[in-house]
Amino acid sequence: MEKIALRRWYLLSGLAQAIGKFPVVEFAIQFVVESSSVKEVLKNYGGTRTYRFPDGQHLRIQFPDHAAGITATAGDWFTAQSDTLPATYVLPVTRYVCSCGQVHESEYPYPSMWCTCGQKAYPEHPLEVPIPLLHHHRGRQGAHV
Question: Is the pTM of this model over 0.85?
Fold first, then answer.
């Protein structure tokens, strides 16, 4: 069996702007992310990100782009506790199970991944991305989509 990395839950608070047919609306939003390190959280979720919805609406979120802006949750925190947080999305790592029995993990959701036995491993649960990623802005803030 493959070694599975120790994961912890991290809290990112950001400022979201709803952009679309209506006037721009700003509100606070939180992501609770399961990750192996703060560095991985910053790589996958930090900075300014733009998300899109099927109805054409866009959501631009400014998350912290440095380690000081990310909070590690208590060791006994579990996903059911997220119900107490407003505008929160819980993003666990995706676990992939191969027909040979091996379990693999990825902090970024893929439709499948290759197992060391040579077969494809598929997500343990159907992939559900709460907010589909449209674009990640690198560089200066306020870049346009």
Answer: no
